[in-house]
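Hi R.,

Here's the chain you asked about this morning:
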Amino acid sequence: MGAFDFGVIIKSLPLLWEGMQITLLLTAFGILGGVALGILLAIMRRSRLFILRAFATFYVDLLRSLPLVLLIFWFYFLVPIAVGHPVGGFYSAVIGFILFEAAYFCEIIRAGIESVRSGQMMAGLASGLTRAQCMRLIVLPQAFRAMLPVMLMQSINIFKSTSLVYVIGLRDFLTAADLIGGRDNRLTEMYALVAVVFFVICWTASQGVGLLQRRIAS
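And the predicted structure, written out as tokens:
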């Protein structure tokens, strides 16, 4: 292996960008789907109905006890056996990320909801709003403001975790770089590039979260 070659990075940019698009798509689906399902689970965990509360608690405890890569394996290898046709690498990863991240977002959202004083809900009910309207119009907006920094940090973790799809051969940014490095015998350049790109994105996002926390605190 010769000196560090920037040329191999330049000429591989189209393939690397294709991989980065997969990485960003997985991140977006993991955040949006995880938050949507997490809100539902958080509300169920606070439900007065025991069956809903028990189901949500079991779901959260179960998913938080499993490694994400195991969930991806399940949908990629085992679900096709049950349904009779392949799910596909991308959809296996998307479903795995949404189900897994929903358990974490649920706990973040539940903590945010509980940080809102109960008097807010009582005031809404007294003004004629239903419990659902109070949750949607009064409690959740305040809760999201309080938990936004934590949710953004969890989103950064999702971005980093997308590299796990390497195990099912989905061509994300890391996999694309690995394939290019193996093809051109330039693994050093490719792995260095992956490290730099992940560092820059995650560090920049972390700085933004820190700035947001300071603004919320002030």
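The CA atoms of residues 26 and 94 lie 6 Å apart.

Let me know if you need anything else.
M.
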